[in-house]
Amino acid sequence: MKVKHFLSALEHDRVHQAIRAAEEGASGDIVLFISQRHVEDPLAAANHEFRKLRLETATDKNSLLIFLAPKSQKFAVVGGAALHEKVGQAWWDELIALLTRHFKESRYTDGLVATIEQAGRALKTHFPASAADRTGQRDIVEE
Bridge-partner residues for 43, per DSSP? Predict the structure, then answer.
């Protein structure tokens, strides 16, 4: 898929609102990263961007990054060590299956919103917000 077609089909405001709602009451950040590059290994690219955005340095290690590479028709979802420890591999597998199902139907915004909502529920359960938390510093990043 061409990046411009994907971006035009994506409802940025709806995704932004879903991220804000998911982060509310949680201490973790959720970031959507959209790459305009061709990507062979989306997991490696996602981990690179996760480190580059300094999400791995979050105090609670509970941030999550959804990495999309529309030109390559690939994506990955990565998170901090503490988040992974709390939710387990089955949760990550379900998250990927949810996003895959929607993307196969070309329901990109719906898939992202459903994935973000599920991530938000996990963050609120395992990492409730404290007064010092400052989530939402960046929620959608386009390269």
Answer: none
